[in-house]
Amino acid sequence: MFKTLIRSPKEITSSKSPVILMLHGYGSNEADLFSLVDYFPDNYYIISARAPFNVQFGGFSWYDIFLDFENNKISDDQQAWDSVLKLSEFTDDLIEKYNLDKDNFNLLGFSQGAILSYALALNYPEKYHKIMALSGYVNENIMPVQENVSKFKKLNFFVSHGKNDDVIPIDVARKTPLYLQEKNVKHVYNEYVMGHTINDKCLQDLIDWFKH
Fold it and tell me: Rounded distance, CA 169 to CA 135, Å?
């Protein structure tokens, strides 16, 4: 369904392997986040997926982004939702194909990939565990309309954003922890002196969080 890069576990510690599914940002590809594989435990499958839509001048996206007459960014929410549905199905396919631990299926998304990670986890909370949402935000247009918050107990979010982000402003990102708090979703939220990226401090905090 999606083109992928895969790191198989370097060591097997159980009959079913835990996994991290990586979702890159707009205009990037599956090789981008895959550069982080060595920071994660050796017993994990690491699977980085390529988004389905081509972007002008190269790269790929999970959904199109347009500019209106006032240069405001408009997301194609229908495309975004279609990608959410396909990724949910892809999750099931991966579990079966690689004999993965369905109770330890984790997401790492950057920017547009983080936006989809929120949507995947909150629409299908039974499927995911730890969600690393970097430099993204909650798009409420692709969130569940009616939630049974008790279903969110399994979820655990690491949320990060750059104070100097010129792609997704920090004021937009600051609404995310409030949204998660309203749903009683376990999370940590950290801001860093950086732009639309992942700096060393953010990466170290992420890895430390993931270990616990």
Answer: 9
Query: What digits encode the pLDDT tens for the residues 112-170?
Result: 999 999 999 999 999 999 999 999 999 999 998 767 778 899 999 999 999 999 999 99
Architecture in CATH of 4-210: 3-Layer(aba) Sandwich (3.40)
Structure tokens at 166: 């010129």
What single-letter DSSP state applies at residue 30?
Answer: T
Tell me, yes or no, if the pTM score tops 0.85.
Answer: yes
Q: What are the boundaries of each domain within the chain?
A: 4-210
Amino acid at 59: G
Map tokens 């495309």 to a residue.
79
- Residues with Cβ within 8 Å of residue 110, at least 6 apart in sequence: 23, 24, 25, 28, 32, 33, 134, 135, 136, 198
Our measurement of the distance from residue 181's CA atom to the centroid of its chain's CA atoms, rounded to an integer in Å, reads: 18
Tokens 């835990």 label which residue? 18
Q: Are 205 and 153 in contact (CB under 8 A)?
A: no
Per-residue pLDDT of 38-64, as tens digits, reads 999 999 999 999 999 999 888 999 999
